[in-house]
Structure formats: C-alpha cells, structure tokens
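Blinded run. Sample ID left blank on purpose so nobody reads anything into the name before looking at the predicted structure. Input follows.
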Amino acid sequence: MAMNVRPLNADTTFLIDLIPSFAPAHTSARFPGSYTILIDPWVTGSSSVWKESFQISHHTTPPCISSLRDISEPDLIIISQDKPDHCHKQTLCTLPADTRVRILATPVAAKLIKSWKYFTHATVESMQPYNSKIDDTVVRIPIPGYSSTSQGGEVTVSYMPQRMDPTRLHNAIGLTYRAPSSMTTSVNGSVVNLFMLPQTPQDSPMAGNFSDLTVSHNDYMTPPDSPMEVEGGSLFPPLEKTISVLYSPHGVAYPAVESYASSLLAKMSALPLTALFHSINIEENPWFMGGVVAAGYPGGAEIVRKLGARYWVSAHDEAKENQGWSVTWIKSTVYSAEEAQQKLDEEKKSIALHQDRKPGKADHRTQIVRLDVGEPLRIV
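Blinded prediction complete.
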C-alpha cells in the first residue's frame, strides 16, 4: 500500500490519499481500491474562539486552496475536535449544501456541525471513544474488491481522547488502510495478480498482457496460505503491510493510545506506525488557562519511542497571527525539523548505547518532515 499526503494549509489541514501499491505514482485519488480522507479543513477566513476579544487567529501562510470546491470531493472528512481551527464553519460550508460526503467528528464537533443546519444530505456521525472490548467503537469502512472473486479492503477510524482533559484539545485519531487483494479473476477464469502487471509507457497498471500473469482456473486449487509457484517466484506475493496513521496535532498522553496500539494495531501487524502527525513546537498556557496547548517534541518523541514511526509529519506548527487575551500568557518553544531530527536521532543512539546494543534492521529511523503548503509527500 502507499499513501500520498498533501497539507492544504501550514497548520493542520491534510489531504491523505490511500492507494494500492501497484497504482502509478501520480495516480488519481479515484484509482480503484483507493480512499481519500480530508482532515480538519481550514482554508479560508479567520478562526475565532468565543469572541474575538478572547481569541482570533489568522493564517500567516496562505492555504493552497480557498474553497473545498477547489479539490475533488473526498471520500471522508474527519473533524478531530470542536475548536474552530479544526471544525471551521466557513470552510466546511464551501461544500455544496447538498453534498453527500461522509463526515466523522468528535461528539461535540458532530453536534456543532448538525446545529448549523447547513448540510441537507451529508452524513454527519459522532465517533465514540475507542474501547478494545467494543468493536463498534472502531469505524470500519469496506473497500470493494476488484472483482466478485477478489477480497476487498478496509479503512478503519478510531478516536482516542485523553482522560481528564477539560480543554478537549488532546486526543488522537487512528487510521488504518488495507487495500483490496491484488489477486482477481479474468473473464476466462484465469487468476490475475495485479501487483505483477507490467507498467506501460503511460504508467498505467491496467494495461498489459495478462497472459503472462495468469494460471489455469483448474490449477487454482492451492490454498492461499500455500502459494503456487510460477516462473519468477510465488504467484501470491507476501501480504503488504497495513498502513497505520496516528493523527494528534496537539499531542496526547500515551496511555490514551496504548490499548489501541496493543490490540487493534498489533493484531493487524500495523506497527511501527506508517506516519505520525504531531506538533513539534511546544505551546503552554498557565494552568488556569488550560495548561499545555501543544505537547510538541516531547510528546511526539514518546509516541515514537513506544510505537515507532516511519515518518513524523509536523502538524499544528504554523506561526499563526494570534490575538486576544487568552493567548497573552502562551509560551512557545520552537524547533526546526532539522533540530527535532537531530535530537531524536541522538536520543535513539543514547538508548541503544545504554542497552549495550547496536541499532539493527528493526530500528528504523523516523524521518521528521515539515511540509510546505501544497507540498506532496508519498510514502510507500
């Protein structure tokens, strides 16, 4: 599987395309078996909490779009909290009122969106806190297979709020993606492995000579766990690793995600994480104003130490123009991506030396990236 990430603003609005590995690198998000998720869109106007005198924020870097009509409608929109820089009414209402898009939101955010009475056909659903003993707390979205004989894929969405958090800032959204099986059946009954299709000069995996990639229908009696051998190797390639994403721009205490990681992600063999979306900069208010606003590097580094991550994508780190008396006491500690990377690498090396071992193949380096607005990142 592969994942394309594109930030639509400099803060925490991301467009994520989840696509099969055999799809072209520059494929459309509508490629069969793909799924597109838009997270926390804020691309126009300001963001105000309560009253402007309390807090109002403006982007200092212009978003790459000014309306959600500027992009293809995603399969899913996720709203991670009810604060207006995440649940932004002006942006969401740039969608047509009769859109049929599916919106998953935290309970307070879902109630807020419904109170606008703007959407007439959209499905607005409230996410329930993840509980490993209650399967319904995981939103499971099936992805159709490529034929009636191929196995479909699945996207899961889980919501993990931090306990004792009256600000409702600190939570995590967990995403997993498993593409439909690349094994399907052609019209003559032969088995086709889409993963092994040759690429055409146009980089289109749906063209090519299927005859070299098929076996007789009568020979297709070997159980899937006993791959048949064909010239050049096994007909059934090793199962691709499930993509796993943890989105927590303000940070979350690790105990809030521990059960999710040890149950759902472990069962899916989805660790280490494919990507962690988390702040790098630390923002703190006095305790009487809610305390920690963004956990920044220390919080993200703890998650990386516990779960691992191939990529750590900077989120909620825009130097916004903030005004109002609620931001008067905020103190910030700012890291560049390079400073955070050096710090993380040094800490990992120190841990390895303390444990008297050398980093091995399992000790994958986490790459920290701070993407420019509109800059694409492809993870395969």
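Unblinding after everyone has recorded impressions. Residues 199-238 have pLDDT under 50 and may be disordered.
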